[in-house]
């Protein structure tokens, strides 16, 4: 399976309640997105270790696309009854906003929605990861190439 990227930094966010599950269930997601032009047609991308989740293209910016990917990953994890979630992000801005390490004031409503969704789990860890990613073909891809490859797999 495709790795989730080399971790640069991580921040854990524990749920509001004490650990609820006696045996935790961990799910991992790589979340990214892009928009062309920016703003324009945006495509959120979520890789769950097996494949890409099918997500619709809508209108917005690159960062909104990343947040849409985070929302989709957290919803997928909730439906799968996960207790713990690791979200791997390529966007430094989104990672900074979610981890409380500054970031632009823009998209505060998206940040708040993601953090509220994260409260459903015992623990969510936000990882900032560094591309390139090695695909099974052995080709090292940049983030832009990964988006293109993902879009082909989603269709």
Describe the structure.
This protein has 155 residues and is an alpha/beta fold. The chain has four helices and eight strands; from the N terminus they run E-E-E-E-H-E-H-H-E-E-E-H. The strands form two sheets. The chain has a six-stranded mixed sheet with strand order 1-6-5-2-3-4, with helices on both faces. The longest helix has 18 residues. The relative contact order is 0.25. About 6% of the residues have low confidence.
Share of residues in helices: 25-40%
Along the chain, the helix and strand elements come as EEEEHEHHEEEH
Query: In terms of structural class, how would the helical and strand content be classed?
Result: alpha/beta
Distance between the termini: 19 Å
Quick recap:
This protein is of the alpha/beta class. Helix content is about 30%, strand content about 30%. It has helices spanning about 60-80, 90-100, 110-120, 145-155, and strands spanning about 5-15, 25-35, 40-45, 60, 85-90, 125-130, 135, 140.
Please tag this protein with its features:
155 residues, two-stranded antiparallel ribbon, alpha/beta, 32% helix
């Amino acid at each position: 399976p495709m790795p989730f990227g080399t971790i640069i930094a991580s921040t854990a966010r524990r749920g509001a309640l004490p650990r609820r599950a006696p045996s935790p269930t961990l799910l991992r997601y790589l979340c990214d997105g892009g928009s062309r032009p920016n703003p324009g047609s945006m495509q959120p991308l979520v890789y769950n270790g097996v494949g890409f989740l099918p997500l619709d293209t809508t209108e917005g910016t690159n960062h909104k696309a990343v947040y849409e990917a985070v929302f989709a990953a957290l919803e997928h994890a909730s439906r799968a009854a996960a207790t713990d979630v690791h979200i791997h992000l390529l966007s430094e801005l989104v990672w900074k906003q979610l981890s409380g390490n500054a970031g632009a004031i823009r998209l505060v409503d998206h940040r708040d929605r993601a953090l509220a969704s994260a409260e459903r789990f015992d623990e969510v860890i936000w990882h900032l990861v560094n591309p390139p990613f090695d695909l099974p073909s052995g080709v090292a891809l940049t983030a832009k190439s990964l988006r293109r490859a993902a879009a082909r797999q989603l269709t």
